[in-house]
Amino acid sequence: MPKILLIFGTRPEAIKMAPVYKILKDSSEFETKVAVTAQHREMLDQVLKLFNITPDYDLNLMTPRQTLQDLTSRALLGLSEVLEDCQPDLVLVHGDTTTTFVGALAAFYKKIPVGHVEAGLRTRNKYSPWPEEMNRRLTGALTDLHFAPTKTSRENLLREGVLPENIFVTGNTVIDALYYTVRENYRFAPELEAILNRPGRIILMTTHRRENWGEPLKNIYRGLLKVLEEAADVRVIFPVHKNPVVREAVREVIGEHPRVHLVEPLDYEPFANLMARSYLVLTDSGGIQEEAPSLGKPVLVLRDTTERPEAVEAGTVRLIGSGTEAVYKNLKELLFDESSYRKMANAINPYGDGKASLRIYRALKYYYKIDSSPPEEFSL
């Protein structure tokens, strides 16, 4: 029975790996183990609890104001010990974090094959998103099985010389997780429920991206406040990232605005259900670009580049950068122009049908010659 080790370290990775874990864990063909670096401790634990995942190995690496150099070196040493103990036949990593790259590198040093979930996303700018773009590219160079979410991702990999037979187009596992989590009758904590029950439209906002730290963050918040002066019915729910750099900018610019509700970061379950209750989403996140369109919510992306161009092409996402006027102009358009809003809200989401983890499971059975045929690829 092949032994598969899933390695992840952040909340987004855990969310997207949870459906893969569940289908492999319930199977009779594979022995499944989990190792977490916990480069994001609290936020990771929320998802582990939600999806009932108990790691077999927990490195617990998170430290205050940790640097990439420190995290990378400690993760490499820790995961090398995990691999020595676990002796897996295959390592599965996800996406673009430091844990992703280091997990693939540690496996390479042990000559263990690597499967990369959400492979092939590219901006072609090594500093945007930073360090995620290079984490993805470096992981791709170390990967044996590439689970690409879309045909565009596959084309990126083919251009880099990856053999077609090593690429499986699966859709994105985040849609699997979303379908598992969002419920029409979901009840929020009393404070959040009270905000949602007031009349008016809700903007859900998140910011955390490193390249936006400093003046770009402040410009984003200034653009938001400018819109709120004209849109009296609109309120903002803003789960503020725990990073002190983000919190300092929020305090300086937004302060205690009566219609901007600053809340602590939400667990994945309430956050996903909050997306479903929102009018639109304003974010610099990567995964939300995939999630919110599945719920019919337009997304304004506070970045200059995106490794998810399919959403831009489909019209579910708009890339607007971090300038004050750009934030003001685009938010105002969606809040006051019903046709523009409907065009985005009704666009088809290109990222999945809720069966990505099933395709990955079938691809692994094909790789290990348990099945004779590869899975059918995801397509719109």
TrEMBL record:
What the entry lists under Pfam families is as follows: Epimerase_2
Highest taxon listed in the record's lineage: Bacteria
Q: Name one GO molecular function term.
A: UDP-N-acetylglucosamine 2-epimerase activity
Quote the EC number. 5.1.3.14
**UniProt cross-references to CDD domains, sorted A to Z:** GTB_UDP-GlcNAc_2-Epimerase
Q: Where is the UDP-N-acetylglucosamine 2-epimerase domain?
A: 24-365
Keyword terms of this UniProt record: Isomerase
Which enzyme type, at the first EC level?
isomerase
Which family, according to UniProt? Belongs to the UDP-N-acetylglucosamine 2-epimerase family.
Task: Give the protein name, as stated in the record.
Answer: UDP-N-acetylglucosamine 2-epimerase (non-hydrolyzing)
